[in-house]
Amino acid sequence: MRPFERTKGRPGKVWGPLLTKEVPLPTNSWFENLVLGDSLDDEMTSRVFTIPYVMDTAGPVAGVRTHGSGVKASVNIVEQTWNPLYGVTLGSVEAVQAQVVRDTGSGAPRQFGIELQWSAREKAGAFMSAPVVRGSPYTTMTYQGMTPKVVASMAPLNGQVLVDGRLVDCAALGEDVANATAHGSVDPEAPAFWVERDVAVTFAASDMTWLVFVSSPGLFRCDFRGALAPPNQLKVPFFRLEAAAVVREGGLRLALVNNCTTATSDPTFCPAAPTGVRKHDRTGYAALLRAHAGVYPAVSPDQALCAPPPTLSLCSASHRCCRIAVLSLPSLRPRCALAAPSLRPRCALAAPSLRR
Questions:
Q1: In this structure, how many other beta carbons lie within 10 angstroms of the beta carbon of residue 117?
Q2: Which of 75, 138, 141, 88 is nearest to 286 (CA)?
Q3: What distance in Å separates the CA atoms of residue 90 and residue 149, rounded to the nearest whole number?
Q4: pLDDT on residue 309
Q5: Which of 73, 183, 252, 350 lies deepest, with the highest CB count within 10 Å?
């Protein structure tokens, strides 16, 4: 037999401190593309299917990129479709080290999901982390001593965003993409606007509207260029929304609210209703997303008792809360719920439920 050397399927640096611990690492998991090999910033190799989204870690900046998807069906096949140009990334202004699986002290990740962490290169103790789970309508990124940032490879409709129900103009950039950098910041001289609850962004190219929820009120800035990045410029940000200051403890949440806002997009992502109308009214769904934006998914297993908030939690000193926990039905498990409108978790024992 010829010698066989496995190089790309073995546990890599992404497992971080878990590599030195005697814990079994999951195999054949739905999220394994996020933890195999070293090409974790490549769209083809880091892609996972969280349902309803397609997610990867290959956006213009380090972080989690979320893609809205559609369904294409024929007599012989049903497939999920998406366009990498239409993805939206939650990241940070600061440069970060390569992603690792966050060590929560509870052993290896379970099948429910995995939590990724990016540490700041030049700020000791600062990091951002994202629980990647299946079935959630939200993508979540939490921040510790870092500056939240949202990036896309397409421009917002009319160069505007909807901030708590009011239109705000983003700063316009030049059309030149040759000298554009993904790691720059919005001009600090650009007008800042106060966000109390959320920012709605409709992208002209995809016709998709996304809601960005903030963990606490604060100042933000945004800018944009052109209309859509060419296929060879996926790493160039054509839209940036970022906090005006470092967030000590907080987070952003992202949710697709409408995939057919003006009915001008590809019908693959904007199918016609039985009445023949393509434009979708998602007012009710937006209200539902806003109503439940305070309950977020988590991936650390089985913490049956609430404890004082750990150093790296999102809890304030006045809260008793459990670390992000997975509900294991049908037994009673603690779940982290959020007291609206903030993203600070409060611990509550939940009766058997499918809510996460």
A1: 20
A2: 138
A3: 6
A4: 31
A5: 252
